Fold each of these.
Amino acid sequence: MLGKLILIGLLAVVYYIGLGISGVSNFILVSIIEALLTLIPYFGNIIGLSLAMAFGYLTSGELGVLIGVLITFTVSQFLESYVLQPYVVGDKVDLHPFTVIVVVVLGGALWGVIGM
């Protein structure tokens, strides 16, 4: 549980930086909400992306903000899956990060999304 809380804090920082650069107004609040929504498996990221895109477009009206939000989400999901989660969660359960990555990849290959 502590590993997941640390992961949420790190994701909030990544979202904070990305959404701030993208030009989303109130990006501090949006980044905290997005990070907390990652607790909901599978649908939390979709809901967070939808909220951030809607909020960004409605407050600015610019297409560039939407592209920035998409880039932020793409980078943050990559960082979460391949960097943050193996190191943070693997450290809390005393597993080597390479072991965590291999198990996630094999689980996905064998059982699809459910195995990940």
Note: The chain has five helices and no strands.
Amino acid sequence: MPKRDDITSVLVIGSGPIVIGQACEFDYSGTQACRVLREEGVRVILVNSNPATIMTDPDFADATYIEPITPAVIETIIAKEKPDAILPTLGGQTALNAAMALHEQGILEKY
């Protein structure tokens, strides 16, 4: 798949706190995705409410926000950082729900 030159920054939405039986696999896959995106020259902006996750290590993102994963918080980050794309699929149901709410509220269209 060819690299898209129009995407220079990506907002990665993490999974939040690890719950038994859920989210640790998202932490691993999210960390690997952040690493690869940065290797490809993409600016990675990460939001995750779990400060204990490896994803929040400064080596994996150019900007890290340890904030609640809510549409309001994510909108504030989008307004400030102006990412070219959003990657919620690495954050499990929490991130997917937040991304769907952003879409339904018209926030993605706004920015």
Note: The chain has four helices and four strands.
